Amino acid sequence: MDPKSDPTPFLRGLYHLLSPERIAHIPESSGRQSIRARRIPASAATRLVVALGLFADLSIPQVWRRLHPATDAPAPVESAFAQARARLGVRPLRELFDAVPRPMTTHQTIGASYRGWRPGLLRD
């Protein structure tokens, strides 16, 4: 992978934006929290699905390794990833998307608007 296009440095920002507490809250609030102890709990599946967007050229097990680099335990089998994603469903990810995006500029940010329109704001 080209070092200039490597999204690994963005993982720190991802962890800052999507703290473990926030990630744990999303499956709980949507009724998709893990009840049983699983190798891939709902919160880990949520973070994995988000990270798949950053590492689109990697397989799911490779993305799992990027998220868990210091773990000596073997990665879950591929069917475990598919089952975790199916258990998670769409609703928690939709709630996460609705909760996280926000404008990153203010009216004072030079060059952040076009003809008075600020990016990221919907107008009625």
Describe the structure concisely:
The chain is mainly alpha-helical. The protein has 6 helices and no strands. α2 packs across α3 (42-54) and α2 crosses α6.
Uncertain stretches of 5 or more adjacent residues: none
Number of domains: 1
Structural class: mainly alpha
The profile of the biggest β sheet is: none
Q: Tell me the span between the first and last alpha carbons.
A: 43 Å
How does the overall form come out from the CA principal axes? Answer: globular
Helix count equals 6
Oligomeric state of the chains present here? single chain
Q: How many strands?
A: 0
Radius of gyration: 17 Å
Helix content: 40-55%
Task: Give an overview in words.
With 124 residues, this protein is mostly helical. It has one domain (3-99). It has helices spanning 10-17, 20-29, 42-54, 60-67, 78-88, 91-99. Helix 2 (20-29) crosses helix 3 (42-54), helix 2 crosses helix 6 and helix 3 packs across helix 5 (78-88). It is globular, with a radius of gyration of 17 Å. The protein starts with 9 loop residues before the first helix and ends in a 25-residue tail after the last helix.
Helix and strand layout, with pairings?
Layout: H1 10-17, H2 20-29, H3 42-54, H4 60-67, H5 78-88, H6 91-99
Helix pairs in contact: 2-3, 2-6, 3-5
